[in-house]
């Protein structure tokens, strides 16, 4: 199997990757387990990985099992470093692995949950000798038993990059062939090199993106909060006096789920802003919705200190098991600035706010209920364009209907119609 085709399959079935879901590559110079490819988006659990792969390998007689473990590995590493979309490529940083998987029986699992944990648990019951190697990765000093039944685990943390790891795999595989030993090999990692935040958005995006300060807070099991570019401002009338960008994560001490779910964000000091606390209280409605009903802010700027100021956010609610999303919400202090133009007003500005209270399933946001109403700007543009076209059509039909047919026509056999143009 060509590695490039394998990578495309990986990408088709592995869009969402959590931090402990990694690919597993399998090959051998004798045989490998006949595995069924999981359905798109599905992961192989640790127990299934032990039953379908590891136990089948251990049941094969007279063969060794090689396990190569990196600290981190992801599908993107293979895509970017193996020249997966070039059919004439030698494999790039996966040169030896591509050669081994092309010339030997091979298979793969795109998404396996914690494969290293499964291997650690399985090796305790392995019927044979277990050897674990770190740098240097030499088989000369390993007492291999005659007839196979050796489990050799190579911890590749000493390999600085993917190319070095590939060289180790190529050297070890060549040495096993020289020794005339039959083996099966696995290549995997302890965790994914892609962080969970990088998979929140799954659409098309540029490879080179700006590192956006984000805030994600999980108050298990009742509150999820995510926002980008949170900014705190003190405004006087329509003039912004002071602005602070809250780039670092906040402390959530004081947050609770019982008896009333409450999110407490204690932001770190920034310049003159010595302390800043945002408190969001959640509640239930009688119609099957949850809501973020109360927002309060407390801050300490220089010698000025304000506590428990109410904020106006608008209606933030969603059905149970759903989340709330708004692209550019504005959270502002409840003050009548018309009567008090000189009053300092606290304002939070943020992007892509998403939060959920209650009924958080599978440790992820539920389906988003957006703050934008039905009549969005694109919809209004479509309606106006349609009205203009309808008006033009109506005007044309009216002009056509106003055309009158002449009441008399020339008769070629009769007398010519004469119109007197004189006064």
From TrEMBL:
Key words of the record: Membrane, Signal, Transmembrane, Transmembrane helix
Domain V-type proton ATPase subunit S1 luminal stretches: 221-358
InterPro entries cross-referenced by the UniProt entry: Ac45_acc_su, VAS1/VOA1_TM, VAS1_LD
Pfam families: Ac45-VOA1_TM, VAS1_LD
Single GO molecular function: ATPase activator activity
V-type proton ATPase subunit S1/VOA1 transmembrane domain mapped to chain residues: 373-411
Membrane-crossing residue ranges in chain numbering: 379-400
Alphabetical GO biological process terms: regulation of cellular pH
Family statement: Belongs to the vacuolar ATPase subunit S1 family.
PANTHER family: V-TYPE PROTON ATPASE SUBUNIT S1 (PTHR12471:SF7), VACUOLAR ATP SYNTHASE SUBUNIT S1 (PTHR12471)
Name of this protein: V-type proton ATPase subunit S1
Organism: Paralvinella palmiformis
